[in-house]
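Hi all, long-time lurker, first post. I run a small reading group and we've been trying to get comfortable going from sequence to structure in the token notation. Rather than ask abstract questions, I figured I'd post a concrete chain and ask someone more experienced to write out its structure so we can walk through it together at our next meeting. Sequence below, copied exactly:
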Amino acid sequence: MARLFVDNLTVMDFSFLDRERGVVGESWIVDIVLGGELDDQGMVFDFGHVKKQIKRFIDARADHRLLVPVGAEGCRTELAGEELFIEFPLASGALIRHRSPRDAVLLVQADAIDAAQFAGTLAAELEPVMPENVKEVLITLRPEAIEGAYFHYTHGLAKHRGQCQRIAHGHRSRLEIAVDGQRDAALEAEWAGRLADSYIATEAHIADEADHGGVTHLTLRYTAAQGDFTLTLPRDQVYVMPLDSTVENIAGHLADRIAGATTGDVLVKAFEGVGKGAFGSRTGR
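-- Answer (accepted) --
Happy to help. Here is the structure in token form:
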């Protein structure tokens, strides 16, 4: 049997629910191997079709969605027409509630979201739509190898024309901070720690603050082109910004905060997942 491979086929940027961590932004790089007999072109599968057909399938299945492990203890879902409601208790006694159009969510038949298990699920779903000569589909989902600071975050961009308008999607992102041209590892670690497993919220989207089980929760709400979105989560997981939480605004906001507490020229390089992001620059006091 012949095999072909495509590394770095695409990047899945998404968020998932976890009983310990809450809502977690993640970015997985997708590698794929196809095995089978050679066709009349001498190929297992045309590379051009891999990059279009399979990438399109994986992007539509999971990219920019909230992955919910429906087997987790206490997880409850309710579908009303095209609207899906989720209640997800956390181990701390806090909870997450999410209401959105159903397409913004992927319900996963598992107790927890696991890269290897989910890769197997994607491969099993792909096999039936492959040409007859393709007998094997192997998918690997892996995080980017990062030396230095990074953080997981979730956000939603109400004004976005694409899938970023979904209220709970996210990224695993590098963070680089330089003062007067020199990288500052301590500042990078400090801010990565502040933003770890955070929901970066736009202030205008906060609709309510209430107690549940002795834990303060915030409710975020907005209407976007795809429909109505609501998310309730523990207050201590939310980092609030005055502007929309685009990566451009995140980089500028961090540069503002850092410049307000230091001297010199501050440059923030904030990533949105793998290989893309924005710069923020300010001059300290």
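A couple of things your group might point at:
Helices lie at 47-62, 115-126, 185-195, 247-259.
The two ends are 65 Å apart (CA to CA).
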